[in-house]
Prior knowledge:
The chain is of the alpha/beta class. 33% of the residues lie in helices and 20% in strands. β10, α11 (290-301) and β11 form a beta-alpha-beta unit. α1 (38-51) crosses α2 (55-62), α17 crosses α18 (557-580) and α19 packs across α20 (646-659). The longest helix has 24 residues, at 557-580. It is globular, with a radius of gyration of 28 Å. The structure holds adenosine-5'-diphosphate (ADP) and zinc ion (2 copies).
Amino acid sequence: MPLGKSHVIGIVxxxxxxxxRSTKPIKDILDAAPILTTDLLKLASWLSDYYHHxxxxxxxxxxxTLARRGNPTEFEPPLIWIAVGxxxxxxxxxxxxxxxxxxxxxSTGPVTTDEARKLGATLPLLRKLxxxxxxxxxxxxxxxxxxxxxxxxxxxxxxxxxxxxxxxDQFGVHTLYxxxxxGKTEVYLRVIENALKQGKQALVLVPEIALTPQTTAxxxxxxxxxxxxxxxxxxxERFRTWxxxxxxxxxxxxxxxxxxxxxFRDLGxxxxxxxxxxxxxxxxxxxxxxxxxAVIRAQMLGIPCVLGSATPSLETxxxxxxxxxxxxxxxxxxxSRKMPTFRVVDIRGERLNGGLSxxxxxxxxxxxxxxxxxxxxxxxxxxxxxLCCSRCGWRAECDACDVRLTLHQSPKLLQCHxxxxxxxxxSTCPECASEEIVALGAGxxxxxxxxxxxxxxxxxxRVDRDTTRSQTQLQNLFSTLTNPxxxxxxxxxxxxxxxxxxxxxxxxxxxxxxxxLSPDFRGPERTAQLITQVAGRAGRAERPxxxxxxxxxxxxxxxxxxxxxxxxxxxxxxxxxxxxxxLPPFTVMAMLRADASNSNESETFLLQLLAIVAxxxxxxxxxxxxxxxxxxxxxxHQALLVSRRRSEIQRALEAVxxxxxxxxxxxxxxxxxxxxxx
Length: 678
Ligand code: ADP
Ligand code: ZN
Ligand code: ZN
């Protein structure tokens, strides 16, 4: 429709019989069918109200990029290309490009157009080969069928499956609390099977890192096909999956966060796997929690939502306590695999070797001598957290952010983990010119180096964001992980998820203190989850695992509760602490953030917002400088709103939105249910 001198793409959300003077004509209707169905429109309006985000931007977040640019949402069905014949057709003798392509296609077998492009094909080239009769194309159809499974569910699994499938036609949130490897996925598969048999679709949300080919493979094995949406896909691939879900061709969609906004024809169940995972929360733009939106969407559709985890979030456990969610537990692993035992290593006064204590190295040696794998978990990538001058105390910091730079070894450089700027490593101190520049602390690269020196004959594999930049690297990684020749695995939280590593008998946690003593109130929860998850990678029936945790604070109540009573013990003490300290899930929070090129401006702006909320029954903390006080050259402030009543926070935020002072140098945002608050 016309707007000023140009034309814009708009979304029709309602119709009226009474045009006004500002009513503009619609020039063209792009989509044959509504791109946002009634249920998505309803969801959009909930999102806009709840997260205090402009409705227009919410629509934009719900529609795939390609459709937003004006592509009609009807789309070409995906094709697969198949080489004809056994030897290179002689007709291609004088067309070397076509010939090479035919040879590639002949060796790969049937490929999609996208896969063919990766082999150097273009659509015209493929069409030419097709005209010559050298290849044929077929419309690729998702081929769903239900294969029988030879797994016999345990009694706990059966109880969970029954509880959910008996209520497939109504809303309910079913928490599935089962230790790692206890067979939660088997429960999802059975529940989905029931939904499919009723002609309904299923959505499975998984954390960013967990979406591996192995994850999808289990669904494809059982159901013949599955649609997949993740962040590494091109707009075209996403759009295609989106359209196939909308048409109902895809009966199952597996995806990360944003898959919750997909346009289903008839959704029957939503599964959120690893519901505690922080990657379900979007931290910019529309700051939604995909887990919470899943619950709302299930409620709007009157269908069940399954929240699965080995370490449920305190929010979810509180909802179980309040009887809003039901809970099924799986406490034993099939085949009686034992849970690992914990051991805390007091490292006060110990001399550390690249972050590792002597007792830890000794126990590692024992396990390696027994031909087992050892997993070393460390929460920091890079070589060392920082570089400093031992003469004058100078520390390497980012020019644009108020943070220390992380030292990397290969390639050798200093990097800011916030704005990703890189700096060369100085050989002398920029302040006092001394040559005594030392690396402080230990990151994955340094621990890896120490291990290579200590165990020169043992192959080591490092896993962190630096070694898994590309999708291919990530995929290779997961197959290498289970390869028993890589005896030591060193890595960050990427190692904590997804994979069961039966040959690992020792998990070493290099440092748990940073997490348990983190200024963010969710630090202990996240640390307990990570340690439990990483511990869950280890051991099998005949070889139970051990978990050793190094700590400068071995009497820390969180650490003691976790190591003596497991995640259950941890949540009990932590829940009590949250109640006493009036923290979520016993209160509701919203964060106001502002940044400006001038420090005063962002602070003053937040003070104005806090004046607006002063009349409500909420506690306002701040404004304070953000934990990262300066990022990419802009000064950042934040203020936290806390209340016992959600309605009060919501009304206060509405007041903020309607009375916000006009200005244009400050960027600001509202974050409802923030996950980072310090
Ligand atoms: P989770 O999702 O809880 O981590 P999985 O569903 O991946 O656990 O199960 C772990 C392993 O146990 C898988 O190899 C799975 O095939 C197997 N398994 C699950 N349920 C059973 C069962 N009832 N009997 C035997 N093996 C099972
Ligand atoms: Zn110096
Ligand atoms: Zn920076």
